[in-house]
Amino acid sequence: MDENFAVALGWGVASIAFFTFLGVRSWVNAQRREREAYYKSEAIKKIAEMQGATPEPVLALLREALKPPPEAPQLMNPATAKEYYKSETLKRIAEIGADGATVLAMMREDEMRSARRVREGLKLGGMIMAGVGAGLLVFLRAIEPYMPVFLVSLIPLLVGGAMLGYAFFLSPTD
After folding, report:
1. Sequence-separated (6 or more) residues with CB below 8 Å from residue 129
2. Quick count: other Cβ atoms within 10 Å of Cβ 156?
3. Model pLDDT for residues 40-76, shown as the tens digit of each residue
């Protein structure tokens, strides 16, 4: 009887967690779409308030921004998503008719931004791992002062140190 109750309770908690996740995900997507619509409307207002004739490149960008975005496939891993959005961006640039130097500069800037994001992620991850290792060292030493179990905490501490060392000294810079 207790086993059946435990299984039912587990399935109940799992289903509640799953549907809560779905609700939060749809709410976040709605917030993002609302924010994007607000930014587009603000850009349109600013262009409408410009004095004199609006340059043709600005109008072309405005027309491009007003097009509905293509629907992205729902299930993508991060590498596939990055390639998908990169190809979509290049298609839009080709439709606008930008020159090669502009496209090349934009691609270089995107690569530098991506490398900087990875480096910052390594720094953050290294600091977190080092903090976990230091905290584990203190707490394991306090729990068992006469046994060297606290040496286990050197694993996350050294992994965090390696991540920080790579991020600061070995990673490619701008």
Report:
1. 156, 157, 159, 160, 163
2. 19
3. 777 766 666 666 666 666 666 666 666 666 666 667 7
Q: Are 150 and 137 in contact (CB under 8 A)?
A: yes
Rounded Cα distance between 127 and 120, Å, is 11
d(CA 141, CA 153): 10
H-type alpha helices, the chain: 2-48, 56-66, 78-96, 100-143, 154-165
Distances (CA, A) of 74 to 37, 65, 70, 77, 80: 21, 22, 12, 10, 11
Q: Are 124 and 144 in contact (CB under 8 A)?
A: no
Distance CA 23, CA 150 (A): 42
| Averaged pLDDT for residues 127-138 | 93
CA dihedral (115, 121, 126, 128) in degrees, to 10, reads 170
Distance, CA of 137 to CA of 154 (rounded, Å) = 7
Q: 118-143 burial, b for 16+ CB within 10 Å, e for fewer?
A: ebeebbeebeebbebbeebbeebeee
Pair 62, 43: CB distance under 8 Å: yes
- Positive or negative torsion for Cα 14, 20, 23, 28: negative
